[in-house]
Amino acid sequence: MASIPDRSQIPGWGADLDRACRPAVPMERTPPRLEHPPSGPPTRQAQQVEVLHSIERPGITPVFGSAVPPRGLSGWMRRRAFRRSESDIRHWMLLLAADRVNVIEGLLDDARKSRRVQAVAVIGLAGLLAATWLARD
């Protein structure tokens, strides 16, 4: 049977035993208590956009995210998903598919707004027309 080595000679061994040996002691402190903790539920956030929520809960939470409201085909898919229970696999599969569709919608929206992408599209369309005209024999 192997003997247990003497660890008392290792620098820093057992630092957690003496509080003064801990490197973070000057910064460690108990967080202050709130003088006047809030009483009751938080103030309800004003709903200015459509917020989707589960059918298993009576309403939306007092505070919610509204940065990206549902829109387009992906929004339609999300609305369809939230008509189903969260225990239904179709709910989650529709949400996953809506995420993928949202990426494509975003790419199309970026292409629509970008002058550079529009210029490349015009040149590509002109090249396609020229190739079609030359290959008409």
Radius of gyration: 31 Å
What is the distance, rounded to the nearest whole angstrom, between the alpha carbons of the first and last residues? Answer: 92 Å
Q: Count of DSSP helices?
A: 3
Which descriptor suits the 3D outline? extended
Question: Could you give a short account of the major beta sheet?
Answer: none
User: pLDDT under 50 segments (min length 5)?
Assistant: none
Helix content: 40-55%
- In N-to-C order, the SSE pattern is HHH
- Nearest-integer average pLDDT: 83
Instruction: Provide the β-strand percentage band.
Output: under 5%
Total strand segments: 0
- Provide the structure class: mainly alpha
If you had to describe this structure to a student in words, what would you say it looks like?
Helix 1 runs antiparallel to helix 2. Helices cover 40% and strands 0% of the residues. The protein is mostly helical. It has a domain of 68 residues.
Protein topology:
Blueprint: H1 72-81, H2 89-113, H3 115-134
Helix pairs in contact: 1-2
Features:
single chain, 137 residues, mainly alpha, extended
Overview in brief:
The chain is mainly alpha-helical and 137 residues long. 40% of the residues lie in helices and 0% in strands.
